[in-house]
Amino acid sequence: MPFSAVSRFVHGRSSGLFLAVAMFVLAPLAAGASTLQDTAAPASPSSTPPPASASNPRLPVKNLQRVVVTGIRGSIEKSLQVKRQSNEIVEVVSAEDIGKLPDPSIADSLSRLSGLATQRGLDGQANQISIRGLSPDFTATLLNGHEQASTGENRGVEFNQYPAELINQVVVYKTPDASLLGQGLAGTVDMHTIKPLDFDGMKLAANLRGQRSSNGSLNPGSGVGDWGHRFSLSWIDQFFDHTLGIALGAAREDAPIQQRQYQAWWWSVDNGTAGIDQNWGGPHTPGMPDNVISQEGMQLRALSQDQVRDGVMGVLEWAPNDTYYSTLNLFYSRFDKRSYKNGLQWSSSPYDNVSYDNVGTVPLQPYPLVTSGTLMGIAPILQNGYNRERDYLFSADWSNQIHFGDGWVVSGDVAYSSARVKLLDAYTFTGLPGGALGDVQFTTPRDFGFPDFRTSFNPGDPASLVFTDPDNYSYNGRQEFDRQKDHLKSARLAISHPLGWIFSSVDAGIAWSDREKTKQADVFFAYLNGNGSDPGTYDHAFGVPINPSLLRGNTSLGYGGIGPIVDYDVLAALEQQFYLTQRNGAGDYDRNYSVREKVPVAYLKFNLDTTLGSIPLRGNAGVQVVRTEQSSQAFQTTGNDKVGTLTGGATYTKVLPSLNLVAELGDQQYLRFGFAKTLTRGRIDDEKVASSAAVSEVQNGPGAGQVLWSGSGGNPKLRPYIAVGTDLAWEKYFDDATYVGVDVFNKNILNYIYTRTVTDYDFSGYTNNNPLLTPSSNIGTFSTPQNGTGGRMQGVELEGALSGARLSPALAGFGVQANFALTNSTIPDSTISNIPGGPKSLPGLSRKTANLQVYYEAHGLALRIAERYRSSFTGEAVALFDQIGYTRIRANKETDLQASYEFPDGRLKGLSLLLQVSNLTNEPFESEQVSGLPNSVEVARPLEYDTWGRTVLLGVNYAL
Fold first, then answer.
1. What are phi and psi of 702, to 5 degrees?
2. How far apart are alpha carbons 414 and 305 in whole angstroms?
3. Rounded CA gap, 169 and 772, in Å?
4. How far apart are CA 927 and CA 945, in angstroms?
5. Residue 138: DSSP 8-state
6. Where is this region: Disordered (predicted)?
7. How far is it, in rounded angstroms, from Cα 889 to Cα 448?
8. Bridge partners for 98 per DSSP
């Protein structure tokens, strides 16, 4: 299949896209059905990764005489083996070899699975997973079957914290069973480290790769270049007659990120009365034609980030006899990110007394668009920033199983996971001295792309710039210190016993978890010292020159026409030429909170193994009873003042039934049915009790003269999201690497969370901010997350893999994998009221996702080219001041290339050379803002346009 088909595959209309994938996944049928080749023995319990339970013991592998297939095909075969044997509907990614997942990151590998998609972070890397169009907070993430703490603001785990070289397999549960703890509403991702007793001897693997970004070094003075490296080392061995296994691994990544950023602040229709944003539409701008859409401000920035991640893992596996089994897993990761962001920005709002000359427009509906001209009278702002984030992850679990007589099995485990984040964020402003203004000749794209700006001033000349407050922000810089901790402790005790009749066994268990997430944010405003004298003595009209000792050269904004701009040491500048004053406002105090959740669980699961007529039928039926005790402590603010401390919480119990059935139809065909009721607790920042509340006297209208409460904030009494999902799937396996499948699913969301204004909110326990006013009642209005009815999600997923040898011996070594998912939603409201894009824009929901991978592997040579696509969606992003926000992210596709050669024999046996190129086509990140005109016409205009370039990795692998 020519790779040009990839582009047509992902960019066709939905009907054509559906047809293309349908034709592909049905292609093996045309090659003639056959039974699965019996080249691999059925997987032993030690090689399948369902969650540990009493009915899933891990005992020493008795038969180690098997053919080990590695590489791309080996990864596909291992994944399909687990998928085929699972009682649940799952998707699987397996390592190609020890320490080698198919992609540089876990998130990249997961995004190639049917129904899954990633969202790129500010560093351009895939770091969070969306399953079936639900945001990352609806996905539970486990490591070796145990729930993981998160370094993110909420529940969604950032997968770039986990080195891909230390993960052996990842299983994504789309339908859970009753023994799967930590379930998510969308699904559950369970990462697995390696099991040393699965191997028949000592294994050693080492990987070394150099890494380069094609964007070059945008901030040379920062010390962040365009070269990085990755290194990993894994060692596995067994002792005492193969009863004790040890696996150790370490991985280090030093990855430079070079990002070119361009953002349009907002857009307006210049006719004196109306604006695209209903809050805009001001006076006529001199020189601007009437009834045209124009950009009202911009920022052009260059980001250089150095990411250093160190990870280590250890596994101790002990199986001294057929009675007792024990395993200890340890994982630690440290992520150190240093970011330097320098740029130029200005406002071109008519309220800032700017004017235009020689304006050029292009046709656009409903009004022409301004794309060129001269902008006069701007106050340029140069903002230089520094960000340092340190993340620490630790995870430990110890599991034990004892096998008694008559099939009785007792198992127990304890686990601990913690995540800590330390963040420093700082920036300062420079501008023209004496409040001078400048002119700009501009050419901006009609849609997305970088602009071309030519300024009348030189932003690269430090002698022409001063520290000042160019746009009257009332401060000269800002510094923020954030601390976040997430601790999760858990334990489980389970028992299993064989049964007769249609059930092979029964599992019963109790479990307990205790999670506490705390966050602290302290904000300081920076003010100029003058020439090192007392605060406030500098000439406000002129500003303060930059100390030459702070200069670090120039930052390049040539991709936006600007050329070089001044770069200096921000932290040193804050120490030498500024003083800091703590200025936490309501939005900052709002991020100082703790949320705690204690969750006891009991479950019962019957494992099914029978026949329906002549059709073998297996699966499970069970129920979980989940009790939640949640509590929160945070601040009450009035305006920007902290006036009190609040506490609150709730307790509730939910019953979650589940059913999984697998009918083996013969000729390696499987018909699967899954049913489950699942829950996800509210977002952490929705459950916090932090509130801004005050009493005030009603001046006019109904209730005039009364003193009433009003406010907004979180809701510690939230009940969880609840959904009932059903799946019907069909799979057909032709050989170890060839299959087709289709899954139709429906998810009824019974309980959803919306932001609403409550008119009968009880303010008992709140502090009266004004003792001179006595409230008429403790009842008032409060805007807060509330539970409400949900809606429905429905979708279809097509997937398949084809080994070229099935079509012709001449195609041996070639192979293709593809999948396509179409998801529709009828959810009536958005989760948060400020999500753009209309009432059905559920965060993270891409209506269409697709993947296509073409590979060749033979005679030591392996080539793979893969492309993934997701349609537009509303995504969660870190907005201004490190707070979470939402934006509409446009459709995107990413293409990756991998090539390797492994020396088959001789002195170089075990050595392989590797080339990987991520984001081969330099796909940009594009987001847009959507607003409505007064005549109800909706207009979408570009918001963000960023590029990271392509990343090239070249290295060697060695396996012994």
1. -60, 135
2. 38
3. 64
4. 7
5. G
6. 39-60
7. 13
8. none
Burial of 839 (0-12, 13-18, 19+ CB in 10 A): exposed
Cα(482)–Cα(521) distance, integer angstroms: 4
Tell me the backbone φ, ψ of residue 196, rounded to 5 degrees: -65, -30
Distance between CA 817 and CA 813 in Å, rounded? 13
Label residue 285 by pLDDT band (50, 70, 90).
confident
More confident residue, 648 or 538: 648
What is the band of 352 on the pLDDT scale with cuts at 50, 70, 90?
Answer: confident
pLDDT in tens, 558-597: 999 999 999 999 999 999 999 999 988 888 999 999 999 9
Beta bridge partners of 484: 421, 519
**3-state DSSP assignment of residue 748:** strand
Copy the structure tokens of residue 809.
């011996």
Spatial CA neighbour of 878 closest among 387, 256, 186: 387
CA dist list (Å): 493 to 72, 400, 507, 658, 673:
38, 10, 11, 20, 29
What's the one-letter identity of residue 718? L
SS3 letters across 490-539: EEEEEEEEECCCCEEEEEEEEEEEEEEEEEEEEEEEEEECCCCCCCCCCC
Query: How is domain 4-265+297-345+384-425+482-521+586-959 classified at the architecture level of CATH?
Result: Beta Barrel (2.40)
Comparing CA positions, the residue from 854, 872, 852 lying closest to residue 864 is 854
Question: pLDDT tens across 191-223, in order?
Answer: 999 999 999 999 999 999 999 999 999 999 899
How many residues does this entry show for the chain? 960
The answer to whether residues 345 and 297 touch, using CB atoms and an 8 Å cutoff, is: yes
Q: Can you give the residue ranges of every domain in the chain?
A: 4-265+297-345+384-425+482-521+586-959
Q: Cβ neighbours of residue 806 under 8 Å, at least 6 residues apart?
A: 28, 31, 734, 735, 738
Residue 844, phi-psi category: left (phi > 0), alpha (psi -120 to 50), beta (remainder): left
Instruction: Of 705, 719, 709, give the one whose Cα is nearest residue 652.
Output: 719
How many angstroms separate the CA atoms of 471 and 315, rounded? 57
Tokens of 579: 């003083």
* CA 6 to centroid of chain Cα atoms: 25
How does strand 187-192 pair with strand 139-143? parallel
Contact 781, 763 (CB under 8 A): no
Cα end-to-end distance, the chain, whole Å: 35
Q: How far is CA 40 from CA 10, 43, 76, 737, 801, in A?
A: 35, 8, 13, 12, 18
Q: Among 827, 124, 55, 818, which Cα is nearest to 496's? A: 55
What local confidence, expressed as pLDDT, does residue 755 receive? 84
H-only helix segments in 348-461: none
| Distances from the Cα of 45 to the Cα of 51, 58, 88, angstroms | 11, 6, 15
Of 889, 950, 949, give the one whose Cα is nearest residue 917: 950
| pTM summary value | 0.88
pLDDT in tens, 486-496: 999 999 999 99
**Spatial CB neighbours of 202, under 8 Å, sequence gap ≥ 6:** 235, 236, 237, 238, 960
Bridge pairing between strands 884-889 and 615-638: unpaired
Alpha-carbon distance of 228 to 213, in angstroms, equals 9
By percentage, how much of the chain surpasses pLDDT 70?
86
**How far is it between the farthest Cα atoms of the chain?**
93
Residue 806 in 3-state DSSP?
A: helix
Q: Give the integer Cα–Cα distance in Å for 897 and 213.
A: 15
Neighbouring CB atoms inside 10 A of 35's CB total 11
CB proximity list for 643: less than 8 A, separation 6 or greater: 636, 637, 767, 769
| DSSP label at residue 910 | T
